[in-house]
Every structure is written in C-alpha cells, then in structure tokens.
Amino acid sequence: MQSSKTLKIGIIGNGNVGGALAQGLASAGHAVHAVGDDMAAVQATAAWAEVVLLAVPFAAVGAVVEVAGAALAGKVVIDVTNALDAQMQLALGFSTSGAEELQRRLPAARVVKAFNTVFAPHMATGRLGDEALTAFVAGDDAEAKRTTLALARAIGFDAVDAGPLSNARLLEPLAYLNIQLGYVLGMGPQIGFKLLHGQAG
Ligand SMILES: NC(=O)c1ccc[n+]([C@@H]2O[C@H](COP(=O)([O-])OP(=O)(O)OC[C@H]3O[C@@H](n4cnc5c(N)ncnc54)[C@H](OP(=O)(O)O)[C@@H]3O)[C@@H](O)[C@H]2O)c1
User: N or C, fewer C-beta in 10 Å, the chain?
Assistant: First the structure.
C-alpha cells in the first residue's frame, strides 16, 4: 500500500478522537468516513475502508470486533484506544496490551498502535503551538507501520517507529501518564509528548 496515495480511511468511533483524526486525515487529502455506535455503519465502514482506525471506548472493542472482524482481514487496523477499565485504571499490564489482545482477536488484520499517547484536541494537526508532537507507532507488520507513520506525518506529527506491537505495553501506560498529568495532576489537555532527536555520536 503506497502511503502517498489517497487512502480510504474508516474511523470507528466518532467522538473526540475519531472526530479530530478524521479532520486531520481529511486535511491531508484522504477519503475519510467516521462512524459512531451504529453497528450497520461500523460494518459498512470497515468493509469500505483500506485503513481502519479504532477510536471507541476500550469496553466497546469487543462489539466492534464481533461486527467488523471479518471485514478487517488483511487491512491496517490502527488501535488508538487506551486499555482503561470503568474506574479509569489500566486494564492490562506487563504481559500483554490492548493492541496485542486486539491482534489476537483479529489474526488476519495488521494491527498497529498509534496516536493513543496524544490528547484528542491535538490529533487534527499533530501540533501543540509551534511544536510537532510525537506519534509513537508500534506494530509487527512493516508495511502497516510504514502506512501509519506516513499518515501521522501527513497530519503533522513527528512520527516515530516505536518497534513491535508488544511495545504497546509501554505506549498504553504512557498514555495513562498523559491522563494523570492532564486530568489528575491538573495540567489540563494542553500538554503532549515530544521525543527529542539529537545528533548521532
Ligand atoms: N480523548 C482523548 O484525549 C484520547 C486520547 C487518546 C486515546 N483516547 C482513546 O480513544 C478512544 C475514544 O476516546 P474519545 O475521547 O474519542 O471518546 P468519546 O468522545 O466518548 O467517543 C467515543 C466514540 O465511540 C463510539 N462508540 C461507542 N461504542 C461503540 C461501539 N460499540 N461501536 C462503535 N462506536 C462506538 C461513540 O459513538 P456514539 O457517539 O454514537 O455514542 C463515540 O463516537 C478511547 O479508547 C480513549 O481511551 C482518547
């Protein structure tokens, strides 16, 4: 899949995250369709899209998989969810991650973890003020990861290859730190992570 061509991008979940990513990806020239909690629309969007972003509450992932799973075979599935339980605590820990569990449930899909460490208001541009935020991209399928990195760059992020899908075990807690800083420790959502790139040697 060439990353520079116009892609048909389906976004499951049309809330804060889905809406912002839809805006950013449409501005980058892609054909975007975002849907909310309407299972017929979810199924149709998954079937239509070449790339699917999952932007629903973690508790809704199972329902989406059930309805859209077959249509996602072979496709790039970008998991933006955070594995949080009803008490807003991390639902998974050291031995797996939400993204790996999603890949297990969608063995024929090419799951990538990305964008989950960014607050939704910054997802349409990938920027906070003058700074490009980092989009960490983890996945096991090299082409799916290249496609996701290109999409993140097209939005405006500094996209960083964060290694295999198992590194979602690190990215999901990093998002939890973002939530702690923003909403528990009072910094608010006008914050974000930026990886600094120094000179080699
Ligand atoms: N908010 C952030 O800053 C942020 C940042 C990074 C990651 N995340 C993660 O991104 C995900 C979405 O967060 P959000 O803030 O965008 O939540 P949100 O504003 O509450 O939006 C959730 C969306 O999911 C849809 N939905 C719920 N159940 C569904 C189902 N069974 N099938 C299809 N769609 C369903 C809702 O549809 P209806 O509108 O029709 O109910 C809504 O469009 C969560 O996993 C969250 O942890 C959030």
Answer: C
